[in-house]
Amino acid sequence: MTTEQVLVEVAGDLATVTLNRPDRRNALSESMLRDLGAGLARAVAAPAVRAIIVAANGPVFSSGHDFADMADRDVDAMRRLLGVCTEVMLGLARLPVPVVACVQGIATAAGCQLVASCDLAVASEAAAFATPGVNIGLFCSTPMVALSRNVPRKHAMEMLLTGDLVPAEEARRIGLVNRVVAPGSERTEALALARQIASKSALTVKIGKEAFYRQLELNLADAYRYTAEVMVENMLARDAEEGIGAFIEKRAPRWEDR
Fold first, then answer.
1. 53: β partners
2. Cβ proximity of 59 and 22 under 8 Å
3. How many CA atoms lie within 13 A of 234 on its CB side?
4. Residue 12: is it exposed, middle or buried by C-beta count within 10 angstroms (0-12/13-18/19+)?
5. Are the beta carbons of 93 and 117 closer than 8 angstroms?
6. According to the model, what pLDDT value does residue 13 have?
7. In this structure, are strands 120-124 and 179-181 parallel, antiparallel, or unpaired?
8. pTM of the entire structure?
9. Does residue 36 contact residue 19 with C-beta atoms inside 8 Å?
10. Closest C-alpha among 41, 62, 60 to residue 52
């Protein structure tokens, strides 16, 4: 009997995409990455979904790339694997809804990259994070991209150069995760955070998420020019009119997502 590597559950306006390869420490083989990408696409395609949680079954969130899958690959096959991984990580930023990582255990190398690539992250106190490639002579170069865009430079360099495990509370302090909760309550907290975001205008959240990642690629002056135009266009939306009106009238807004 074959077990699905990635599970997708849609419940109302939330979807949960779960890594389901606990016997392999949820290692990100090429097929696992392709299934993850397909699972995210399936989740976001559900008409009512306004936020996605990425979780994992078993004691480990993800140990990163699957070395058994990497062994004996030629150069082209290795490039293909890393290309698939890159597309999945970039795809998280391109999704029109927020993605919340729910981390119950250790997340290392590409597993840490996956957490860093999500928009938000909730971690159990039992979770820990590392980019340990340096310990085996394979620097975590691609995980470095996401890590260095989440935490300050010197913290990122320390993780990359030492390979040490960073406890959940330290990960929160340096900005890799948003919230740390008691073991076993991370899914409840991640769902609550996602549900809070899902209560906002889906159009506004989509506009904001896209603008957030776009302005990061620009210099300061260009970022202000770009976001000023985004705000002008946003002001013309029906939900902006409704939200401002509701604020003035001291009532709850009725979003139309347009």
1. 16, 100
2. yes
3. 20
4. exposed
5. yes
6. 96
7. parallel
8. 0.96
9. yes
10. 41
* Contact (CB, 8 A) for 25 and 58: yes
Alpha carbon distances (Å) from 115 to 11, 71, 79, 82, 215? 22, 25, 22, 17, 21
CA separation for the pair 49, 206 (Å, rounded):
12
Terminal CA-CA length for the chain: 45
Strand partners, 60: 106
Distance CA 12, CA 34 (A): 25
Q: 84: which 2 tokens?
A: 């698939």
Token pair listed for 149:
């865009």
Residue 20 carries which side chain, given as an amino acid letter? N
The residue among 30, 105, 118 whose CA lies nearest residue 63 is 105
pLDDT in tens, 65-111: 998 888 889 999 999 999 999 999 999 999 999 999 999 999 999 99
d(CA 218, CA 50): 27
Q: How many CA atoms lie within 13 A of 70 on its CB side?
A: 11
Element (H, E) at 228: helix 220-235
Tokens, residue 183: 């073991």
Question: Which residues in 151-190 are b (16+ Cβ under 10 Å) and which e?
Answer: beeebbebbbeebebbbbeebbebebbbbbbeeeebbebb
Phi and psi for 16 in degrees, rounded to 5? -120, 125
